[in-house]
Structure formats: C-alpha cells, structure tokens
TrEMBL record:
Positions with biased composition (Low complexity): 363-372, 481-526
Residues covered by region (Disordered): 1-25, 352-382, 481-583
InterPro entries membership: Beta_helix, Pectin_lyase_fold/virulence, TAT_signal
Protein name stated in the entry: Right-handed parallel beta-helix repeat-containing protein
Compositional bias per record (Acidic residues), positions renumbered to this chain: 527-537
Organism: Halobaculum lipolyticum
Matching Pfam families: Beta_helix
Ranges annotated as biased composition (Polar residues): 559-568
Residue ranges annotated for the Right handed beta helix domain, each copy included: 163-321
Amino acid sequence: MADSHTGEDGSNGTATDEKEATTASASRRTLLKGIGAFATVGGAGVLASEAASAAEPFGEYSSPNGEVTIPPGEYTWDDDDLDIGSGDALVGGGDRGDVVVNMAGGTMDGSIAGGFENIVVRGDNKDSKAGIDVEDGAVIDGFHWPEGGQQSEDRCLYNPDGGDRATIRNSSWAWMVNNGAYTDKMPMTYENCASINNNIAGIRVGHRESDPNETTYIRNCLIAVTRTPANDDTNSPHARGIRMRQKGTFVIENCYFIYLDVDGTADLIEIHDGAEDSDVTIRNCAFYNDSGGDLVRDKGNGAASVTIEDCSFHGSGSSTIEPDYDGNGLVDKEVRFPYPSEITGYAVADEAEGVGSGIGPWGERSTGSSTPEETEEPTADPAEYDHTLVLEASEENPTSASARAGDFDLDVVVDGEVALGDLSEPRQDELVENGDGTVTINVNNLMPGELDSYRFTGEIVDYQKDSGYDVTVSLDGTTTTLEELAGGDSGTDGSTDGSTDGSTDGSTDGSTDGSTDGSTDSGTDGSTDDGSTDDGTDGGSGSTGSLTKRVVVDGSDSGRPTNYTFTVSGDVERDETTSARTADGTDWDRVRDFAEGGKVIGLVGSGVDAYRFSGEITSVTVDGEATFTVERGP
C-alpha cells in the first residue's frame, strides 16, 4: 500500500533565507540547561493549567524579535502566525508546561529557525493542514501537542528544505494523520522525545537535500502505537515507527518502541529504498511488539550497512530483523518501559490518548515524586557520602578515526555505596549492583564537553573506558586519572593506558561564549590571553606569592548555573579571599570546584569564584551567563 505523498516534492513548505547562527541548547549535563534538574515537572490539564491566567491571544508573542519570554498562562491560537527567525527565541515562562496554547481556529503552522521552548498546544487542528516548518539551526525544546492535528494533511514537524542540522528535545506529538515528525531533508538530532499514535511514521528522517555523510541522531526516544492511527480517504492507517526515507548516516540509540496488536501498525524501524546506501546503527533499544510488523525492515535490497547491538525484544509479536547486520543483535535483558513523561520530563506528554496504566508494558506510574528523574536514580545528599567523582569528556572527542562523538561509554567499579551526583543524567547513566559488594557506574553516551558526577563511599577498584576518547577525572577536588584511582589494574578492554585520563585540553577553542562580556574592574581587556609578558618561568612553586595573576568568574544575578573550565600553563589554586558563595546556598553554589594540575572545572550560580595562577591561560569554556575576567598581577 502506498503511503501519502503529501509534501513529497517539498511544496508544503516555503524556503527561508534566514539560515545563519544556530540557537544553542545545552544538554542536561551542561549546567546552563542543568537548572532543569532542580525544577519539577509541570503539567497542563486539558485546556487548563494551574499557573494559567485568563486566555490571551498567542499572536502577541508568536513572532519574537530576539529572545522573548511568554508569561505562564493560557493563550488562544486563532490562525496566528508563528515566525521565529534565526537568532530569535520564544521561551515559555514558569515551570514546565505552564504555557498552554489552545487551538481555537485556523491552522497550527509556522516557521522556526531559532529557539522554541516550553510551549504546550492543546486541542486538535481546525483546518485540513498543520505543521511547523523546522528550518536549519532550529532548536525546539519542550514542545508538546498531545491531541495532534487529526486532519488529512497534518504533520507536527516538517523540513521545508535542507540545512546543516535542527534539534528537537524533550518534546512529544501524537495523533498526526500524515507523519508525526516529517523531517527528511537535513541531519536531525532527536533527544528525549515521544511519538504517540502517529500515522505513516512517528519520526521520518533522511538527508534528501543535505550531505548524506552527516549523521542524524535519535536518542532516548519513545515511539508507541497503541491505538489505530487517525486516517481518512487520503491516508490509510500504516504507522511505521522510525522511517529512514532518504540516504544518510543514522544512529538510533537508547530508544523504546511499543507496538500493540491494533489495526494500522507497520514496521517499527524501516529503511526505505531511498535510503538503501545508508549507514544505520541501532543500539541499546528495547522493542515491545505485539504486532506482525518487523522490528527492522530493509526495503533497499540489502544495500544498507546495518549494525544492531545490545537491543532486546519483548511481547508476543514478530521479532524479525530483515537486513543482515553486524553486532550482537537481540540480547536477553529486563527492561522497564517508561511513560512519555519520563522520557520528556513533561507530565502533559502522558495525556495523549492511548497512554496509561495497563496499556501494553506500562504499569502503574511511580508515586511520591513529581519528577521522572526521582523515580529512577535520585541524586545524593553530599553529607551521606565520602567522595565526589567528576568526569569531563574532552571537547575534542572523538580522538581516533574509529570513534564517534557521543558514543563514549565508561564503566567505573566502586567497592561501596554509590549515588548520582548533581551533574549526572538519570535516564542515561546507571548504577548496577554486581552481587559482590561492588557497584558499577555505567556512564553512557558522554558527549564532548559534558560533565557527570557521582558520590560514593569506599574505593574505585576497576574501570573500563572506550578507546579513542579522553576524559578528565577529579576526585574530591584533585585532578587524577582512573588508572591511579584503580591502582593501575584497569582498562579491561585493553584500551585505557591511563595517560589520556588526565588530559587537560578539554576545550581548546578559547571561547568565552557570547554571553560573557569579558569586562574587568582592573581595566584589563578581559581576553583569554591576559596580555602580560610573564613567560611562566616562576617555577610553578604553587605558593601564593608566585601566583600573581587572577581569574574571577562572576555569576549571573539570576542565579542560573554556569559551568566553566580553563587551563593554565603554570599552577593554579582557588582564591578563597575573593571567592564568595551566595547567601541562600543554592545547590549549584554548593558544588565544589576543582583546581589541580593546571586545569579548573567549576560551577557558579550567583556567587563569585576566583583563582590565582601562574603562566598563561591556554583554553577557556564558559557555558552560561557568568562573566569571565582575567586580572594581571603586579
């Protein structure tokens, strides 16, 4: 049966000339975005929100100039024009789910080339066609439409043309008749998203108008078909999960598929004949299938290069994997299938029809917690643990031809008790009890520049690190290596020589981020090279007298956390006299900063962090709103 060809020629979208700077959105491990770890999951009832005020026209905010925050409340969509250009952003205020836009008339469509964050749309579409054009550089974070369009020509997200990349995070869409996310013209990144009961394809990808050698990533996403998808005379029910429609390189990892025995199901993953020469990697995915659809179907005559690793099958339906593949394929392991809210961090995602306790593998929702993170691995009270371990992946990973960015896995074995720290990512990182009194910390998919932290009692006794990657390690404020911590008896995959673990290059671009003004009260220019003529020949004694230069990191008045790193060619130590914690003692201001071996890993809220150093600054990264100042000594 042929699927709908609506938009196949690209006529559904209008090209835009605004394809310039990308609006960045840090991962949850980077602390600019990490403030969400301390927020509760918001929820919006049908056409209601606890934080809502009287409904106002959405059109007053739908075309922002620069970054605009829309106040918490209810708004009405009545044929409004959503237009967010490159460099612009519309951000929903309040907690997650506190901005609700109710469909009253017209079509939910528009164009996003900038940022779109924390917006919930309620109600189905009013006209025959719906879909937001996702342009090059767009970053959509926390967009939810649980009712969907339910019209013949709708798709929640659409690529009108090609580009370098667009990113969708922490979002959900449901009940679209003509594809859930129809994004097959440029490389895409999907993280922590849920597609529920969408027809044709839950997520459709390809590089039709872009470089096929680039990579599309689909990570930690949930694709479910639990009811017969909405359809009409132009779209028969035929719901694929992830559909690779055009040639590209595709990585599907840590995803969940739930397909029940209902009318209109198709294959859970499909490699279309248009993608026959693609490179496809599917790893650590869980398939719950009661339907007759294949887990993976190849319509491209076996021409795709396919790798399937550490995936699992559950349910009573087909477990067929059609293409030949490399890797260990399906393995036996116990899996808990999460709710959409646990994937996205938004309670409203569970309100899509076809989601609920007793449906497929879903059991009772966890109680006693308002956040998905807390139902899995709660972060630790520092007072209950003796040690803090911080890991930072090098900004330059991968460092070998065989390595891929974001594929960095690391296991650390601890003889004692372990808990996730403030910088960890509960849905990615795992703590596994080994039955012999030890616990393995599974650090999964550590992206370049990301940080993870853990608290533990006892000692580190072993580790295993993927080859081709660098990581900086700090224990209780002292920079060290995993080899040193494990007594030299580690690297069980033969790939860890220990020499890379103390790497201090971390970040070599020298950037202080556009939000740092670099100003200083001492009249220096604030550049990362302080301009002094000091050749660093002070001997590196580490005494305060020889550390004649100073770095001051002044946090934002908003209190939002900023994580930063810098490396010096000499010695560095914290300047306790100049440093100042905030009076309220927010969580991020209590996190210890690490200064050792010329490398500083720090986190500041609205306080001030200061360091004295010798030599020259060789690299700087600032991810947030803090001001980074270099002061010249006498």
